[in-house]
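Recap quiz, item 2
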Amino acid sequence: MEPILAPESIDLVSIAPVLVLTVFAMGVMVLDLFAGKSKTLLAFVSIVGLLMTAISAFAKVGLPVFSFNDSYTVDHLSVCFILIFTLSSALAILISIDYNDRENIKAGEFYSLVLFCTVGMIVLASSTDLIMIFLGIEIVSICLYVLAGIRRNHLKSNEAALKYFLLGAFATGFLLYGMALMYGATGTTNLISIADLIKSDGVKSEPLLMIGAVLLLIGFGFKVASVPFHMWAPDVYQGAPSPVTAFMAVGPKAAALVAFFRVFAETLPEISFFWETLLVTISILTMFIGNLGAIMQTNIKRLLAYSSVSHVGYILMAVLVKNTLGSASLIFYMVTYAFMIFGVFAIIIMLGRKGDENLEIEGYSGLGFKHPVIALCMTVFMLSLGGLPPLAGFVAKFYIFNAALQEGFLMLVIIAVLNSAISLYYYLKVIVYMYMKEPVREFQLSITPITLFVVALAIIGTIQLGIFPDPILSLAQQ
Amino acid sequence: MTEYFFISVFAIVALIIIGALLALSTILGPRNPTPQKLIPYECGIIPTEEAKGRYPVRFATIAMLFIIFDIEVVFMYPWAVALDQLQLFGLIEMVAFIAILGVAYVYIWGRGGLEWD
């Protein structure tokens, strides 16, 4: 009897990042038992693990490499995203050290869950098989459900976890149903085989394939929080602990977007005639609802949740571009977005008080007079999120709009630019509060070296990528 | 497309039959409820209390742990049957699998997941 999995397709070196990080995640989990009260050691070990993972991403040369019967792919896209994931997870762990102390989050599992979640993201970014994608999404989601509710005695946190879990499980159903129909239409779960079949064969007009693709679109739409599947985002982002919110807004979202890109842009471009219109509509709706929703918010975390929804609207344009230009702009956008979001959240954590209080934008009034440097950093991040030159957010948007323009999405780009202008309103609102209003109460900043380090790193990233984007851009374009 | 047609005919007929049976029993069936008849049926024994009691969350934890180790054994059956084909590679894979579960076991033990109080 022939073995199902040919031994030569088992290539452990290709999954080196997954293996390294899994070992570290388990190590942190066990270490927690013996580490005692202080969890700083765990955070340190986790950072080392993430660093090793980032290095092991380069274990394979001669990309692209296909292993495990073509279900796992190491290519330029996956390597770049492994670097983004490790960076964002490391930053999330750094900003959570002080936060966990203040909020009395004693669970050392926090760090191992972040690591396990990162494992899931790596699987997601490298998988070229529907089953592997499902596996990755589930690893990521299950960790996030727990992380969102890790403040067990906090009502909002519990609400966030429960909402996220119920809606997430529901969306997973859609995803799985879509995968099943796609398997029904093509007879394989492998994305490369599906792409070949569609190219050569008459499955193009198979209704099962279309229905499957639409269901997948819904499932992914939920995972990346695009309209009309964004309803969970504001509540979950608000209720989850601040470092987890930052983490959710960058890493898992980026991972879902890569899988989105792999399924739609790389596998189904031949039948784009029907999903393209859908995705354009979703993208436009996502921008508008995200931006208009953010205008109304008074809570900074909710504001950033809506802003993150609107950013997904821009990023979905990269999926529409369907070629290497699209993937390159996706990579660049996520790098800059990681810097901006972690910078903002580091400042939010500095300004926050015990019990995750002081999250109203009003609480930022007068920050510019009392703590000019912090306020200046916040201003830079806000302007960058709004997409003003010469900051990184501008280059990222410019690059993605340009790519879409080259593919002929003129109307979409015009709408995106219009939305970019709308978004400035609420980003500037924060700046207006900081510089043009009197303080409502005394500031109690908890400034620690680690949080300051994250802010500094984010500032350097935001400005550097805005003025000299070439190194990262050329890396992304390879 | 013809397959879809037959499947849809089948689905419609199934729905009609279900609907007809439910409708007929509602319309034609006699209905004279007594308190005795409205008691929930529990294998013929007269219920002693409300079924809405609260269980300690421990039950759920133990059940989850049980399932994890149950699945471990379920995985081992097909592996053991096919071991002659899998050879050394299969053995190493299974050792890795059990080692990972062993880590989970150490963790559960250390966290006090196996203690009732």
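The interface with chain A takes residues 4, 85-86, 89, 100, 103, 106-107, 110-111 of chain B (CB under 8 Å).
The domain at 2-111 of chain B is CATH 1.20.58 (Methane Monooxygenase Hydroxylase; Chain G, domain 1).
End of item.
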